[in-house]
Amino acid sequence: MSADPNGAAGGQSGGRAFSEAELQDLVASTDSGGRAPDNRGVALLIAAVAFLWSVFQLWIAQPQLWFAQYLPVLNSSQTRPVHLAFALLLAFLVYPALKSSPRNRVPLVDWVLALAAAGCAFYVFLFSRELAMTARSGLPTQTQVIVGSIGIVLLLEASRRALGPALTVVGAIFLAYAYVGTGWLIPDIIEHAGLSFTAIINAQWLDTTGVFGIPLGVSTAFVFLFVLFGAILDKAGAGNYFIQLAFAGLGALRGGPAKAAVVGSAMTGLISGSSIANVVTTGTFTIPLMKRVGFSSEKAGAVEVASSVNGQIMPPVMGAAAFLMVEFVGISYVEVIKHAFIPAVISYIALVYIVHLEALKKDMPALGPAASLSRMFLRIAVGFVVTGLAFTALVWAVQGLRAAAPGIADPLVLAAILVVYVAAVRLSARRPDLALDDPNAQKFTLPTVAEVFPTGLHYLLPILVLVWFLMIEMQSPAKSAFYAVAVMLVIILTQRPLKALFRGEDVMAATRAGIGDFIEGMIAGARNMIGIGVATAAAGIIVATVTKTPIGTELAGLVELLSGGNLMIMLLLVGVFSLILGMGLPTTANYIVVSSLMASVVVSLGAQEGLIVPLIAAHLFVFYFGIMADVTPPVGLASFAAAAVSGGDPIRTGFTAFFYSLRTVALPFLFIYNPTLILYGVDLGTAAGIGQAIFIFAVATFAMLLFAAATQGYFLAPSRMWESAALLLVAFTLFVPGFWLDRIQPRFEDLPPTELAAAFDHAAPGEGVRFVVAGPSFTTGAPTQLTLVHTVTGAEPATGRAEAAGLFLMPEGERLFMDEPMFGTPYQEKLSGFDFYGADRVEVVGLLSPADRMPRQVFYIPALLLLALVVMMQRRRQTKPAF
Fold it and tell me: What pLDDT shows up at residue 26?
């Protein structure tokens, strides 16, 4: 999220809490546009455009709707321009140009800019056939170049309005670099001859690789539906339900409001991809209660920020960047969820523990009779197990029904969903609708789980449908989200009338209210998408420049030069780069820019060090640091929003939130060096794989709790310096036990390189063959080397696998040289960094076979002994229960 372009956040002065109207204006200014026209006709027009955008997105997601017979089915090169046309039209209508611009009316110049920008995008849709024959064949017309030029300028202006100046500046710099190519500001390694003006416009606007490339395609196909799902779910009342449920379950603990804020934000992260909206939605209730039990204004705001920002990494509905990973990494969304699950969950568990430690340090009271944190964790664990068993039973039941009666299985399942829904609404109707109590009231009564839980069971149905289609039916994210939205539309239209019917109230009035909720949800979903649509389009400028210029291929050499070839230093540079960019870019745009430039560099430099870094790990690394920018001072807008609620100082709030978020900073480094933390290479389809995943989760959670205790300076009692250092050492050992094993025993045994072809042929399917290639760099001519792992598949021939993979091996005595791999094979791309035509030859210098070593978990023993020593020392000073 960027700094507020209209200055809403910038006007916050430490010590003054914003009013509810000011807070909603802050959210609108950053997420959905701060302009609210007084003219009813203009306001209705903006609402109608937003509503039609949502209808359009539902239609292209499932074109078999009733009106499909009257409209053609559109392909992706047609839907993307329409998507951007809606986003640009609304961006100029709802985001004022300047802080001083009127917010109660749309100036004439904004009408002109809105129509011109939308027209330039719509032009690509109207003339898609002509563009295919001219511009996309390398022969753009003058009219097309003019339209593209105007479109790019207006897109950058819309980005400035909706997201702040950062993305506009970065996009302009990349355009200038593509045009100029050389100059004293451009390092020699990324110099190029420069592209013509026509070529730039063609690549950026008229082709499908720039503005209308993959990022905008993901926004069109996936992201909109998930944002719409969240907006409608929130409008139906799910956000309030999740907050109340969190307070009912955790409010009675020490520092209960803070723990409830963490869990509530995790649950509302299901329905909101915006850190700012999360902070304001949950913070207006949680922050006053946190202050009530003893948190300072800054710490209360920091807890809310740290928990709200992490909502974007919480499966199954993650931020927009998660859908981009599907395209960039080339894996399914289910795989992204699998890899993101453990880091996200242990991050939230650690934050709950952090606020528990804060409560212990300050001896904070509970809101009501005190409860046990360990007992609460046990209940949650039991709840997860019961839920998992129930879901597994449901899967077996549905699969059994389909096997027994395939013709009627799906109608029966649909009928069962409707029956369950009506029963859940009837159960909810027996209790009054949930309403948040005033957190500033003199007497505050905690709700109970028994009171809250039955009132919103029907909100779990669309989430269950989403998870079902994603995880069980293995449908695409777009189709899964469509079905979830369809269920949600039924709920928002019918829950009020059904409750009124069961309560004996006015059904017609409730029906009108339900229709109003539906319309408002559709409009809110579209307005929440304006910034994302503009951001993904503008970020496409960077992506196209990376592909059209040497910066994409040569940046690896530049970063390697800056880092001295050290992976850890390079990861630090990438993290800092992400944080700096993220101070002005929204998370999605930041992820697109940094992953386009740096993800492959992380993988290649890791390979040079002999460390195989999975591409998904590199992308998650960038993603994690991108969301941290919402926290980091001086621009982290989530911190400003929290300070606006708490009345605290925004800079101090930001620094405290960053300190609380150190666990989120540490996790990316840990799963780069230990990819099993993201379940990489773990087969969840087997009992052994599930057991391994449970073990990894348990150890990682325990290690993260120790890390939290070390950074907070409190475990069983206030920690001495050496005790905190010991806890950090224990946590590190539990996370990455292989680090110590590598110091004692080598990971691999060296075999003669000439045995590489035989190693390929003798490996069983699923086994990997690791080898090291050395030779001159294609770009600099300097010696370089690369570690590769070839995983044998069942489709490969019994013999001659190396040649079948595209490798040309030339043994000469005890040495094994290589020629350029066969064109079109994966190795042709992997080895493209070597110069196969220079004086120095490319050679296989190592064939590595896994060494027979002791289990790395052996190092858990000294780590646990050191932990026992810390526990023994702290027990002597302990004055209150640790949990």
Answer: 60
Angle at 110 between CA 104 and CA 114, to 5 degrees: 120
DSSP secondary structure string for all residues of 48-114: HHHHHHHHHHHHHHSTTSTTGGGSPPP-HHHHHHHHHHHHHHHHHHHS-SSTTS-SSS--HHHHHHH
Angle 178-179-184 (CA atoms, 0-180°, nearest 5)?
A: 85
- Indicate the DSSP class of residue 437: -
Q: For the packed helices 600-608 and 567-582, what is the interaxial angle rounded to 10 degrees?
A: 170
Q: List alpha helices for 362-408, DSSP H.
A: 373-404
Which pLDDT score, from 0 to 100, does residue 651 have? 80
Q: By the 8 A CB rule, do 328 and 320 touch?
A: no
Q: Kindly state the helix (H) or strand (E) to which residue 744 belongs, with its residue range.
A: helix 738-744
Q: Which residue has the higher pLDDT, 234 or 17?
A: 234
**773 - beta bridge partners?**
786, 844
- At 753-781, the pLDDT tens digits run 999 989 888 888 877 888 989 998 877 77
Query: What are the backbone dihedrals phi and psi of residue 316, each rounded to the nearest 5 degrees, phi first?
Result: -85, -15
What is the reported pTM? 0.81
Three-point CA angle 446, 379, 716, nearest 5°: 85
CA distance 870 to 726: 8
CB atoms within 10 A of CB 84: 31
CA 598/CA 626 separation, integer angstroms:
13
At 473, list the tokens: 């039916």
Ranking 79-83, 292-296, 344-348, 621-625 by mean pLDDT, the lowest is 292-296
| DSSP state string for 268-300 | HTTT---HHHHHHHHHHHHHHHHHHHT--HHHH
Is the pLDDT confidence value at 669 over 70? yes
Find the mean pLDDT for residues 541-569. 75
Give the confidence band of 5 by pLDDT, cuts at 50, 70, 90. Answer: very low
pLDDT score of 578 more than 50? yes
Half-sphere exposure of 46 (CA within 13 A, CB side): 27
Burial level of 783, CB count in 10 A (0-12/13-18/19+)? exposed
pLDDT the model gives residue 270: 59
For 748, the enclosing helix (H) or strand (E) is strand 748-751
What phi-psi label fits residue 368: left (phi over 0), alpha (psi between -120 and 50 degrees) or beta? left
Phi, psi at 128, each rounded to 5° = -65, -35
Q: What is the mean pLDDT of the chain?
A: 82
Q: In whole angstroms, how far apart are CA 178 and each of 156, 174, 642?
A: 16, 6, 40
For 813: left if phi > 0, alpha if psi spans -120 to 50, otherwise beta; the answer is left
DSSP string over 443-458: S-----HHHHGGGGGG
Spatial contact of 672 and 50, defined as CB atoms under 8 Å apart: no
H helices within 453-597, ranges in order? 460-467, 477-503, 507-548, 551-563, 567-582, 587-594
Q: Which residues contact 462 (CB under 8 A, 6 or more apart)?
A: 229, 233, 484, 485, 487, 488, 491
Interval 550-574 mean pLDDT: 73
The answer to whether 289 touches 378, Cβ cutoff 8 Å, is no
CA 307 to chain centre: 14
Give residue 8's pLDDT. 38
Backbone angles phi, psi at 818, to 5 degrees: -130, 145
